[in-house]
């Protein structure tokens, strides 16, 4: 199968390209080498020599890229929380306008298979249960509670603490940041494309991806890279809130494998899958593990918080296991130990 990978020079995209080639696919690439994701000289390195430079917001570039392909693996996007709302136009432009142009050019070229990089952020807060009132969906956290150190959302009925639970793909979708809103819009655009063309779209909702090649020291870096960069500078990792917020940290090699097997989905329409390890860990645990492996300073829990952050979001990987045969293979302890010394990108 000939597959176009957009965002092919990115952290996840580069791993997907390698995995696709290893699986025997013919891979075409497209990446705009956005300066917030790539060092200005990154494209000079051998890792990027075969990447076609072009922007998914450029219809002509996309039309050339999709010509003759059987499927598109769409990874190109602005990622992370950004800096502030001034980032909103760039997020919407890169993520949503770019996706709309990719889909429009796929339709013109008769390409009927899409694998889309989505994210767990589309859920907003994760799933919660109250001991007295069952499943509950808490409202967005309020600044006064966060400033007072009350980080866990209370039951909206009785006010007692809620217990986090695994989030299935059919959970309500409630993005709580600009980035999250653009990822959900990408899914909706892909669903509309699939309906109009009888195409097949697979939305892979990545959880917290980490591994070799993560970008370092930008406002768009993942938390694992931010912690590791601090340790390399001889500083203690700074952990927001109380460090007990839970996430699912999934290794990039597992994410790349999920993209390869998602190409085999044949059903028309759009189907979403959680791509996660199934092993919840706290952000504080991630920081502590990295510090121990590197012999660096222990994390400092700051109590700081960011608007739009959610407290707990850990999803069920059961559908991906059942329908795709996907099972994450890299255990947390093993993956973090390797990541502690793995090369990052500048």
What does this structure look like?
There is one protein chain. This protein is α/β, with parallel strands linked by helices and 346 residues long. Helices cover 33% and strands 18% of the residues. It is built from ten helices and 14 strands. It has helices spanning 11-22, 59-66, 88-109, 143-147, 178-197, 223-232, 252-262, 283-294, 318-324, 332-339; strands at residues 2-6, 26-30, 71-74, 113-119, 127-130, 134-136, 163-165, 200-206, 208-210, 238-239, 246-251, 269-275, 280-282, 300-301. The chain has a six-stranded parallel beta sheet, with helices on both faces. Strands 6-5-7 form a three-stranded antiparallel beta sheet, with no helix packed on it. The chain has a three-stranded mixed beta sheet with strand order 9-11-13. Helix 2 (59-66) packs across helix 3. The radius of gyration is 20 Å and the shape is globular.
